[in-house]
Amino acid sequence: MNESNDIPFRLTQVAQKRLTAEQLAEVRRRLEDRPENADFNAVEAAIYVGRSTKTLKRAIDAGVGPARAKNPDASGLFATNRHTRYRKGDLDAWRSSLISFAVAFKRFDDLTLDAPWIVTNEGKLWGHILDAESVDAVLRALSEEAVVFAPLNEALREAWSNMPARRAYEAVFNDLVEHARVAIKAAGERDELRLDIGA
To answer: Is the overall model pTM greater than 0.85, yes or no?
Structure first.
């Protein structure tokens, strides 16, 4: 499987293990291009959200995973089979809820602080270091010097490989900027009112 044409439309764990780095990048691009209501199998969902299938299963078992559906059993015994499907929109919502930045940074001033960002081998940002799926992944990124420090506005100007994370961080940035803009406008209106009434 050396050509992108050799990538199967639906991936299995066996097929995923045979993919080259270039093919995996192509799979991510294809998954990103699918419509909001597209169904992903467990392997595709894991690739799309940047987590392993084990991490997805653990999150679901703990009650904090993405929404999913199991295929009904064709035998008519009111059972379900193990083939799980994830809707792309549900994966986007779940991935966005995992973004650590939204929890850690709540004020406009926080946007000026340098934050640690993981950089892929291709030189693109993947996400905040706290978005890594495990402590081992954080340590690996640090040991491989795959972490850069930059404020969020600078990070958002760079190329990203993880578009759901980028969209989530952009939404956080826009919310904080809008909140600051509204507060500044309200302060200006308050000062004008005070001047008008001579206070």
So the answer is: no
